[in-house]
DNA sequence: GTCTATAACGAGATAGAC
DNA sequence: GTCTATCTCGTTATAGAC
């Protein structure tokens, strides 16, 4: 109890710093963001921040690690027990919800990927590869059973990833062209429906 | 003639610098790249580079301007005179060809978008908005004529953009998961076929 | 047009008092 | 744990000779 009471403020500070860091790194990148800026936004001093995180890069990696979990969660839920059409529809909705609720995480993930993901490449290779292979096998099973039209599962997965992330990563462009973002509930539902419609028709068996 | 002979080397240097800059900016971003690095890669001295470009930001904006043209070209070609299925199939192929041939341009474009495109937002608003509205109208016309299933044209365009760019922007991830990139001719054709298949079936009228 | 030298600044990181 | 002060280095940009 006493331990928890003492540790809580520390955790709060760490969290505040991580939140501030995500927000700034996702907009300006690692090199475009100064430790000072992160500290200011988190409401701590620079040297205090550097007491919690040994250096800037360690902070960055911590942010990325948290990120990876958010990014992977919807894929982990993708289930083999469901009806295939329903599983895909649900996955699209969940992924779009992530783009709506954690656009900064999505953008930083994208930034990191573009730069070759030097800091999380190993983890990505290990973690993601296994999950994707598993989910691809599930999709392939559905196709074998005649429940889905035959398309390369990897390309199908890429298409869903790319399309759903686009609304977070290119939010500025989407906003410029449609006047809206996923934060608008009506636009969110319209987007879910459109993406689901094209993808589901695209894999519906003849 | 004499003028051209004198101007050519200068143009070559400018071009070399712009090429080097694109390559580095697209990997490390504006702040992650030093003028020194760009100069070294272009084979000129730093101060010489700063003779051609007043400062780093001007160089960056020049790179972005060239980029925008590459990025917009396939969309401009998107024609209303064609058969809709063929027009969409061609557009997907051309866009994937850009991802294969100019992955750095695609990545820098994405980087810039994520950061809110502060430097080219105005141009983007003007240029892109007009084209997209025009192409959307064409697609809507096809739908009205019963040649395509009814989907929101903007979302359809986003889906094609996102999916085709993904192979450039997330090349590292694609490589990690499939072992290949668009540089592989076989993989390129397989990708074109998969994306076309899903999208075209997705918009095929009932 | 091209180079060397250097000014001027910003940012990451550390030292040490409290 | 938190602060102030400071060290140190990399980088942009300029000055000025050739």
Description:
The structure is a homodimer of 206-residue chains. By secondary structure, chain A is mainly alpha-helical. Chain A has two domains: 53 residues, Arc Repressor Mutant, subunit A (Orthogonal Bundle); 140 residues, Orthogonal Bundle (Tetracycline Repressor, domain 2). Helices cover 79% and strands 0% of the residues of chain A. The first copy, chain A, has ten helices and no strands. In chain A, helix 5 runs parallel beside helix 8. The radius of gyration of chain A is 20 Å and the shape is elongated. The first copy, chain A, starts with a helix and ends with a helix. The N terminus of chain A is likely disordered. The first copy, chain A, binds a DNA duplex (18 and 18 nucleotides) through helix 3.
Main attributes of the structure:
Tetracycline Repressor, domain 2, DNA-binding, mainly alpha, 79% helix, Arc Repressor Mutant, subunit A, homodimer, 206 residues, 2 domains, disordered N terminus
Concise summary:
Chain A has two domains: 1-53, Orthogonal Bundle (Arc Repressor Mutant, subunit A), CATH 1.10.10.60; 64-203, Orthogonal Bundle (Tetracycline Repressor, domain 2). Helix content of chain A is 79%, strand content 0%.
